[in-house]
Design goal:
Blueprint lengths: L4 E3 L3 E7 L10 E7 L8 E2 L5 E7 L2 E5 L2 E5 L4 E4 L5 E5 L5 E7 L7 E2 L2
Antiparallel strand pairs: 1-2, 2-3, 3-10, 4-11, 5-8, 5-10, 6-7, 6-9
Length: 111
């Protein structure tokens, strides 16, 4: 099965489940890869919280005013509508599993 993938200048997101794919009516699920030294855009999700599980790599999250260095095998939660971004602070690609508590998660860029 080929996962629908969205590519960015910092990495990519591979969608596994959501309303757009038609295979979920209650959540969105994705794999995200961040290139070494790169960060995704600062953003928020006004309609859902986000769970982030670190599969491999070294990542630092900014969640609101808080800085979090996540460990491989751990999960964290970003509260609904909280600005956040993730930065790969290692030398290899970061792989994360993302789960959202809504099948059509909203995405709003922050400045």
């Amino acid at each position: 099965m080929t996962e629908p993938t969205t590519k960015f200048d910092w990495g990519e997101i591979c969608w596994l489940a959501n309303a757009e794919l038609g295979n979920s009516r209650e959540l969105s699920l994705a794999r995200m890869f961040i290139d070494p030294g790169a960060s995704n855009d600062n953003h928020r999700h006004p309609n859902c919280e986000e769970s982030i599980y670190l599969v491999r790599g070294q990542v630092r999250h900014q969640v609101g005013a808080q800085i979090i260095n996540q460990q491989v095998g751990s999960a964290g939660i970003v509260p609904r509508d909280t600005p956040h971004r993730s930065t790969n602070v290692g030398t290899d690609a970061v792989e994360l599993i993302l789960a959202y508590s809504w099948e059509a998660r909203a995405f709003v860029l922050e400045k």
